[in-house]
Design brief:
With 258 residues, the chain is mainly alpha-helical. It is built from 15 helices and 6 strands. It has a domain at 6-149: Rossmann fold. The strands form 3 sheets. The chain has a two-stranded parallel ribbon with strand order 1-2. A two-stranded antiparallel sheet has the order 3-4. It has a two-stranded parallel sheet with strand order 5-6.
Length: 258
């Protein structure tokens, strides 16, 4: 088994590559609210210094959209190509089409993160049934959260930690329990709670317009498997600038529009 969110983001390249190597592969996609995903990605990449620590979410979205429209180039954007294309990676229906061209419907399963969070055991049993695996493994399995983004107290120590992690990655891949133990100690020393990125009402509306048609297409194509997706954008929907100003995570300020 192998997993990476990049397989969906780079679908135009990866789908055909997988088909050429493992034509009988079963491919599972676990999708989340695309705006939540974009916020999470932004916070994670800031913690890894791929995005400047002082860059705000509104500014980031504005740069990504301008790059996508061809209004600025890579040098003018000041960010790597991968990080500029993160918003597009959340247009799931569009990217899934590349996989549907190379794999049968029986080989592709699309579910939502919402369902996993509601009942992890039932979620994994459904996947096992689809994949032809025994679900007995999950009879007494303890589910824990992994890869939770945190903010470093000391930037220099975070840079050192990232360097150590990169150097020792082959060892950590073979001994994940060692990495978990070391990461727990490191978080106690240098971790602090990530402050949720804030988004203006104008940016919220821009992202709603950006994702709405794709979410609708996803729901039409995959039906009951992604029924939770119909609620994804509701919490982001703008009723008015004033009302959004009272919702945590939003700022009613048109001046911050990208």
């Amino acid at each position: 088994m192998e997993a990476s969110p990049g397989y969906l983001a780079e679908s135009n390249i990866v789908a055909s590559a997988i088909a050429s190597v493992v034509s009988d592969a079963k491919i599972l996609f676990i999708l989340r609210d695309p705006i939540d995903r974009l916020l999470s990605s932004f916070e994670f990449h800031k913690s890894r210094f791929f995005i400047p620590p002082d860059m705000e979410f509104d500014e980031y979205v504005g740069i990504c959209m301008r790059f996508e429209r061809g209004e600025i180039n890579l040098d003018e954007a000041g960010l790597g190509d991968w990080f500029l294309r993160v918003p597009d990676a959340g247009r799931y229906a569009r990217h899934l089409q590349d996989y549907e061209e190379h794999f049968s419907s029986e080989q592709i399963k699309v579910l939502t993160l919402d369902r996993l969070q509601i009942d992890p055991s039932a979620f994994m049993r459904e996947i096992c049934e689809w994949a032809g695996l025994s679900a007995e493994f999950y009879d007494d399995f303890e589910f824990v959260r992994s890869n939770v983004t945190f903010s470093p107290r000391l930037v220099w120590l975070q840079r050192l930690g990232l360097r150590v992690n990169e150097t020792m990655e082959p060892f950590f891949n073979r001994h994940p329990s060692v990495k978990r133990a070391m990461l727990l100690i490191y978080k106690r020393i240098n971790g602090q709670r990530v402050e949720k990125s804030q988004m203006s009402a104008a940016t919220a509306q821009l992202l709603l317009d950006y994702y709405e048609a794709d979410v609708e297409a996803l729901c039409l194509r995959f039906g009951s498997d992604v029924v939770e997706a119909r609620n994804w954008l509701k919490k982001h929907r703008r009723v008015s600038d004033q009302s959004l100003g009272h919702v945590p995570g939003y700022i009613a300020n048109k001046g911050n529009a990208p």
